[in-house]
Write a structure and sequence with these properties.
The chain is an all-alpha fold. It is 67% helix and 0% strand. The protein has one domain (7-140).
Length: 151
């Protein structure tokens, strides 16, 4: 359900959320480049060790996430569901990362800072979405519109 705020005022209220979503796309683009060229066995960052295939595989997902965020940021009201997806994905990553760092013996703390950055994006998404008048339904349940074949 779309909030009942006039479109022009809604667009102004959504700008911080759109900017944050675009910025997190830049963060994921950086992650993609790091996984493509820096992270992996025999590369500058190989702690924890990861096979180059899996590093490139993960990088491709980060590239897709960045693309999704860049394009969604231009019409954030329509694609608010994508923000909800990233909230869930980043949240799962942060919980998983810190669970392994704290409870898995020998797991290196190499990427502790990424948990802080991703956690910060989650907080900013939620704060700016709330400030713009978006509901949990807007973020986590896509609006379904029925269209006929002819339009």
């Amino acid at each position: 359900m779309t909030p009942s705020i006039p479109v022009s005022k809604q667009n102004n209220k959504l700008k911080p959320l759109a900017f944050t979503f675009f910025a997190s796309g830049i963060w994921d683009l950086i992650a993609a480049l790091l996984y493509f060229f820096v992270i992996g066995t025999g590369r500058p960052i190989d702690e924890p060790a990861i096979d180059p295939f899996f590093a490139i595989f993960l990088g491709s997902f980060f590239l897709c996430f960045a693309y999704l965020q860049f394009l969604s940021a231009f019409n954030v009201q329509r694609y608010a569901f994508n923000i909800g997806c990233l909230i869930l994905g980043r949240g799962f990553y942060v919980v998983q990362l810190y669970a392994f760092m704290f409870f898995s013996a020998g797991f290196p703390p190499t990427f502790w800072f990424t948990g802080i950055i991703d956690g910060s994006f989650i907080v900013l998404y939620l704060y700016f979405a709330r400030a713009a008048g978006l509901s949990a339904r807007d973020l986590f349940l896509p609006k379904i519109t029925k269209k006929t074949i002819n339009g």
